[in-house]
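Dear colleague,

Thank you for sharing your sequence with our group. We've completed the structure prediction you requested, and as agreed, I am returning the results in plain text so they can be pasted directly into your records. Please verify that the sequence below matches your submission; if there's any discrepancy, let me know and we will rerun it promptly.
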Amino acid sequence: MEKRSNPRLGIDTSIVCKRYNSLNGAVPIDGNIKNCCPAGFYAELKEYVSAGTILVVQMTGNSQGYSADEGVRSMSLAEVRWSKPMSVEGEACYATGLRYLNAY
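Please find the predicted C-alpha coordinates below.
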Protein backbone atom coordinates (compact mmCIF):
# COMPACT_ATOMS: atom_id res chain seq x y z
CA MET A 1 0.00 0.00 0.00
CA GLU A 2 1.29 3.42 -1.01
CA LYS A 3 1.90 5.73 1.97
CA ARG A 4 2.57 8.85 -0.09
CA SER A 5 -0.01 11.63 -0.13
CA ASN A 6 1.03 12.73 -3.65
CA PRO A 7 1.63 10.42 -6.63
CA ARG A 8 5.10 10.67 -8.19
CA LEU A 9 5.81 11.75 -11.75
CA GLY A 10 8.78 10.00 -13.34
CA ILE A 11 11.32 12.40 -14.85
CA ASP A 12 15.04 12.26 -15.57
CA THR A 13 16.56 15.73 -15.84
CA SER A 14 19.75 17.36 -14.61
CA ILE A 15 19.95 19.88 -11.78
CA VAL A 16 22.57 21.94 -9.99
CA CYS A 17 22.23 22.76 -6.27
CA LYS A 18 23.91 25.18 -3.88
CA ARG A 19 23.62 25.37 -0.12
CA TYR A 20 21.43 28.37 0.70
CA ASN A 21 23.58 29.57 3.61
CA SER A 22 26.73 29.80 1.44
CA LEU A 23 25.58 30.87 -2.01
CA ASN A 24 28.47 33.21 -2.80
CA GLY A 25 31.27 30.73 -2.16
CA ALA A 26 29.35 27.51 -2.56
CA VAL A 27 30.63 24.73 -4.77
CA PRO A 28 27.73 23.52 -6.95
CA ILE A 29 26.38 20.01 -6.45
CA ASP A 30 25.31 18.29 -9.67
CA GLY A 31 22.55 15.72 -9.81
CA ASN A 32 19.48 14.36 -11.56
CA ILE A 33 15.84 14.54 -10.56
CA LYS A 34 14.30 11.08 -10.96
CA ASN A 35 10.73 11.74 -9.78
CA CYS A 36 8.71 14.60 -8.37
CA CYS A 37 5.34 15.69 -7.06
CA PRO A 38 3.89 19.06 -6.00
CA ALA A 39 5.42 18.63 -2.50
CA GLY A 40 8.98 17.68 -3.46
CA PHE A 41 11.25 15.38 -5.42
CA TYR A 42 13.76 12.54 -5.38
CA ALA A 43 17.21 13.24 -6.81
CA GLU A 44 20.50 11.45 -7.17
CA LEU A 45 23.20 13.94 -6.12
CA LYS A 46 26.97 13.71 -6.60
CA GLU A 47 27.59 14.81 -2.99
CA TYR A 48 26.14 13.96 0.44
CA VAL A 49 23.93 16.68 1.92
CA SER A 50 22.67 16.26 5.48
CA ALA A 51 18.98 16.28 6.40
CA GLY A 52 17.66 19.75 7.21
CA THR A 53 19.99 21.54 4.78
CA ILE A 54 18.29 24.12 2.57
CA LEU A 55 19.35 24.05 -1.08
CA VAL A 56 18.75 26.37 -4.00
CA VAL A 57 17.94 23.96 -6.84
CA GLN A 58 18.07 24.95 -10.50
CA MET A 59 17.00 22.67 -13.30
CA THR A 60 19.61 22.59 -16.07
CA GLY A 61 17.97 19.86 -18.15
CA ASN A 62 14.70 19.65 -20.02
CA SER A 63 11.40 19.73 -18.09
CA GLN A 64 10.00 17.29 -20.68
CA GLY A 65 6.82 19.36 -20.99
CA TYR A 66 5.74 18.93 -17.37
CA SER A 67 4.40 21.85 -15.34
CA ALA A 68 4.93 23.27 -11.85
CA ASP A 69 1.49 21.88 -10.92
CA GLU A 70 2.97 18.43 -11.49
CA GLY A 71 6.00 19.23 -9.32
CA VAL A 72 8.53 20.28 -11.97
CA ARG A 73 10.09 23.61 -11.04
CA SER A 74 12.90 25.32 -12.94
CA MET A 75 14.24 26.94 -9.74
CA SER A 76 13.28 26.42 -6.12
CA LEU A 77 14.30 26.26 -2.49
CA ALA A 78 14.17 22.76 -1.08
CA GLU A 79 14.91 21.13 2.27
CA VAL A 80 16.82 17.85 2.32
CA ARG A 81 14.65 15.29 4.14
CA TRP A 82 16.99 12.29 3.82
CA SER A 83 20.10 11.15 1.94
CA LYS A 84 21.82 7.78 1.62
CA PRO A 85 24.75 6.49 -0.44
CA MET A 86 24.17 4.42 -3.55
CA SER A 87 25.93 3.46 -6.76
CA VAL A 88 24.76 4.31 -10.27
CA GLU A 89 26.64 2.64 -13.12
CA GLY A 90 29.61 2.09 -10.81
CA GLU A 91 29.77 5.71 -9.63
CA ALA A 92 29.03 6.73 -6.06
CA CYS A 93 26.15 9.14 -5.57
CA TYR A 94 23.51 9.90 -2.96
CA ALA A 95 19.83 9.09 -3.17
CA THR A 96 18.20 12.21 -1.72
CA GLY A 97 14.62 13.16 -0.87
CA LEU A 98 13.79 16.88 -0.88
CA ARG A 99 10.74 18.92 0.07
CA TYR A 100 9.91 22.15 -1.76
CA LEU A 101 9.88 25.32 0.34
CA ASN A 102 8.81 27.70 -2.46
CA ALA A 103 9.29 28.32 -6.18
CA TYR A 104 10.50 31.12 -8.41
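Summary note from our side: The chain has a mean pLDDT of 85.

Kind regards,
the structure core
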